[in-house]
Amino acid sequence: MNSAKQRLIFALDVDNLEDARNWVAKLQGQVGVFKIGKQLFTRCGPEVVRLVQDGGCDVFLDLKYHDIPNTVAMAGLEAQRLGVRMFNVHALGGFEMMAKLVAEIDRVSPRGNPDRPILLAVTILTSSTEETLRRVGIDRPIQVMVPKLARLAKDAGMDGVVASPKEVGLIRDACGDDFLIVTPGVRPTFASQDDQKRVTTPGDALRSGADYLVIGRPISAAADPALAADMILQEMQEALNE
Ligand code: C5P
Fold first, then answer.
1. Distance 141 CA to ligand 1 centre (A)
2. Is the link from the previous residue into 70 a cis peptide, with omega within 30 of 0?
3. Atom number of ligand 1 nearest to Cα 185
4. pLDDT tens for residues 94-142?
5. Which residues are catalytic?
6. pTM over 0.90
């Protein structure tokens, strides 16, 4: 890594191939990675992954697998075959689930291989409150659970986590520098906050130790999306140059 462009992940939050194609065409100069989530992938399948790749860009397949270890590992192998740059699982699926996934990916694409995907874990969804956790029997505070699950992911051999920008410090303390952190909830100074509650600017997210930023509406809702992406890249580059 890594230019600002390679660290900027655009959330492709659309529901059809045509819109996806238009966004890739519009942003392929500025954005290195496009995030494809459950809705778009369920509707369009692998075709939308290829569409992004044909545009010369990488894919973050955001399907957050959580199942028995074998099922997650087999799904992960399919993601690897699709050639996605990164995909994710829920750390709450447990150590064995993540370790089995890592072992299967090691088998087909050892560390250092250019086609090896980055394996990410989600710790606690930022939509969860402590009450949400209590109702499923987790009594510990989120501030404890997030670094605990990040460390579990690291110990299982995962490459990093998806986390709120506000959690980056806790995760760095628990997992050290050799662990990737991908953060949504990023808002450049020129954009509205939408429904994101705890936001950070792109520059501050990188300064606090994030490696990749996921950004959607500050770009998609801008009057000139390519210009908005350019302004974000500039903010990111300034932080990277410091
Ligand atoms: O439009 P916006 O920049 O808020 O988009 C952020 C993207 O990151 C969306 O696809 C959203 O689902 C995702 N995301 C998030 N917060 C999380 C995890 C994922 O906003 N904690």
1. 22
2. no
3. 20
4. 999 999 999 999 999 999 999 999 999 999 998 899 999 999 999 999 9
5. 64
6. yes
